[in-house]
Design goal:
Number of strands: 2
Oligomer: single chain
Number of helices: 2
Amino acid sequence: MNSPPAEGEIIVKIFQQPLIDNLDDGVIFVNNRLNIISWNKKFELMTGIDWGKVEELKMTS
């Protein structure tokens, strides 16, 4: 079961995402549980992976 997003995760998605999407670099955000909470369009282009396919997946080494 997915837990509801933390306040910080909501802030990133609503307010910062448009700014992040306009960066020239690929950016990825994870929470303290290493779940992917956001990434920008450049990172999507770099990896070729659509954001919807990785949301809430855990980052591993």
